[in-house]
Amino acid sequence: MTVEPTPKVVCQNIWKIFGPQGQSVIHAPATQASKAEILASTGQVVAVRDISFAVQKGETFVVMGLSGSGKSTLLRCLPRLIDPSAGHVLIDGQDIATMDQQQLRTIRRHKMSMVFQHFGLFPHRRILDNVAYGLEVQGMKKAERQARAQAVITLVNLQGWENHYPGQLSGGMQQRVGLARALAVDPEILLFDEPFSALDPLIRREMQDELLSLQEKMQKTLIFITHDFAEALKLGDRIAIMKDGEFVQVGTPQEVVLTPANDYVREFTKDVPRSKVLTAQNIMQPALTASVPGQSVPATLAVDDLLALVATTEQPLAVVNGADQVIGIVDRSAVLRALAGMVPLSLGDQQ
Length: 351
Prior knowledge:
alpha/beta, CBS-domain, six-stranded mixed beta sheet, four-stranded antiparallel beta sheet, globular
């Protein structure tokens, strides 16, 4: 029997209501009233409404929604920067609602780090000292924390800027400093609140690529907030689409694009080329043997990238998983069908 791993982060029935009578909204009998109707009738603002989800260790979970959807409020409930009105947040099985202030500080200093849209750097401190700040709060000795900060500065490709000040750096470089400061304390969980939204498009793509590269090395648990659907598709192992304080769909990028739950999600997905989210695993056929002659490709390779490979051979390609085991085959006709949109909408049998 396969034992499922314990999720790193679990949210159970989280509500956040701004107003003095929030509990009356939560406990109202089976209300189906909208956020606007509740505001009009009670004066209470429902920011987060009965949300539950779990994030596995090493997973990147993206919460995507428009302004006012409640996504940033939800994120701030996780480390109790905002106290939920109801529900539970479990970190490694521990309910943070039951923690006292000392326990909360320990979680925030050692297990979680947060990267904000606004960099929040200290203008009077050198980059090295900005990055080392969390370690300083932990009480680490100066030489040790500076050595750790220097290593993380190199990790985010800012070596040579250690003795400069934030005002001397570009916006993208300042965001790297913010990321380095979060990484310096070696957290198990990283929370991102629209960290790249203030950056120019080119710098934004570079930062997305940087984060993907770092995550491949570090395998942290990431919860990432964005209003950009393209960013959500690029970064997320799973995506939650949020509207009016609720999740309207949670799934992999492929599931969200190919099987949108409603018209709201469909509006986000209608201009996304399927070939950019479909992978070899989504379009493969079962392999008849454990060994397939010829070239192999990773299961996560996008259909767009497969096209160049199948154009040079008539032979099927072996599709391999992370352990280099053959899990299927893909050929030119499968790729061409995918590019033409002729793929099953249900991905259940492709996993």
